[in-house]
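Protein in question quoted for reference:
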Amino acid sequence: MKDLIILGAGPAGLSAAIYGIRAGLNLIILEKFSPGGQVMNTYEVENYPGFANPIPGWELVSAMENQARRLGAEIISGEIATLSFDSRTKIFTATLADGSTVQAKSIIAATGASLKKLGIPGEEHFFGRGVSYCATCDGAFYKDRVTAVIGGGNTALEEAHFLTRFARRVYLIHRRNQYRADKILKERIASDEKIVPVLETIPLSINGDTKVKSLTVKNIRTEQITELAVDGVFVFIGYIPNTSYLPKDVLNEKGEVIVDIHMRTKIPGLFAAGDLRSESRRQIVMACADGATAAMSAYEYLSQQ
């Protein structure tokens, strides 16, 4: 019987482990893939405090993993299938994909979110070499270059506007005839000379050699196919929270975990941290803060039992 099981070994889960172990909790981390989460695929991280120069994503999270292991964290390979809670005993049972189970007095769900992808030729091939899902992370690499942003919601418009700090031109591509963002964002986009709206258009393929050179698009009204010369393609068509194993009553309509400021859910002893929680900004430093908060809340919960 563990005091705490941390589901996920990304920045949120590793930070939770560091704080949990330092608080004296008997815990384990359960991770489906290798520790690190999405950051492992980030070419360089330039906005994490403490590093004067950009640091490769894998190096940053490897340092987090090494720190957690040095303190005594045990990382177990396994995929969570279901999570159940016995309200009488106040014990959680995590059932893994292989049928095995592990029990604990508290849980921190930190399994993150999966990026929605376009599913077009070139997207996977050029990931990290011109295809990105984070303008905040990678925008500075496109100074005085031409980029394309795909998406029409708030995030897409916010990130397109952010990219104008660096890129000389930003194509903002959306399949509908108007963007689905807030009025103030649409007004901001309309007044920015660097942003070129490309509406009623879908991407067909991302092209290049060792890096991105162009984006092939199709106007869905006229069916005209055009090739845009771009140096980078940023995709913001949404996220899918990795929460299928959690009880439905702790999720909102988007599948995100509903938490309070202390990362507590409505189920006593169940906490959530990082990209899967509601209102997440999906930044590494914020995920770390979530993990630390969740671990401290778990310690307080266990101390009261």
